[in-house]
Amino acid sequence: MNDKLMARSGGKCELCQKEADVVVHHILPDTYADNEVVVCKSLVGQVEGTEPLNPEAWRFLPDAMWSEVPAVQVLAWRMLNRLKDEAWASDALDILYLDDDMLEWAKALGEQGEAREAVVHKDANGNILQNGDSVVITKTLDVKGSSLSAKLGTVVKNIRLVEDNPEQIEGRVDGQLIVILTKYLRKQN
């Protein structure tokens, strides 16, 4: 962390103001000056979309959005937009004012550039599934468009997660690749 950032942040997260392990996060695109923010390590994964977004962890945003640091305001605006289904975040967005240049910066990445929320696949018991796991089918399932029936208790090895749908995985049953709903699966240990 450079001296300027250290002095500005006081070694604290510029969003939540906690004295925790912090890292420097770059606000893209890089065409804007002073585009670095000091952020808690615990929040970076959610900012970057590599961890699921936990709305309760962001309750401080209505305070952070009034920061005098443009990069902090832009990051607060982006996170509030990702949380806008929460009443408190929607209310904060309604009163947040960014001048035209900062609003342009905040919107600069558009839909394609925003961090995508991490898709987490869970079995019927809430266990997180990963590519390559083995699962057990918990209900006999008829496979659409086929005479195949995936029987209760069938072990499906080396599954693949359906990237954009947390409720589906792909796996081979009797040599045929099928899509299975995660609510009918139990992770095998």
From TrEMBL:
User: Gene3D superfamilies in the record, alphabetically?
Assistant: SH3 Domains
Where does the UniProt annotation place the signal sequence? none
What SUPFAM superfamilies would the database entry show? Prokaryotic SH3-related domain
Q: Which domain of life is it from?
A: Bacteria
What region holds the PhnA protein N-terminal proteobacterial domain?
A: 4-48
The record's section on PANTHER family has:
PROTEIN YJDM, PROTEIN YJDM-RELATED
Q: What is this protein called?
A: PhnA protein
This chain's source organism reads: Parapedobacter pyrenivorans
Name the gene that codes for it.
phnA
